[in-house]
Amino acid sequence: MWLLLYLQISLNQQFEYMMTTGKKNIELLDFLHNELELSDKDMAVALKHQEFDNGPLPMLLWQYGLVDLQQLEQILDWLYNES
After folding, report:
1. Angle ∠(20,83,70) on CA atoms, nearest 5
2. Does the pTM of the predicted model rise above 0.90?
């Protein structure tokens, strides 16, 4: 599950991320893992970059080539429908 990606991030960062991650972000991570079948490693890379870039996760996934434009559109549609 997406929780495995926390193994690739230091314990302090894990705790900080879990404390700041809202329910919607957790649901987004579940969507990315279950529907788009992103690997834990890919999501860990994006989350790591999000710490430094402070960019929206979907855009970081696309920027680093972890999702294509069609997948980005699926993510944005999901976010729109969940709001």
Report:
1. 95
2. no
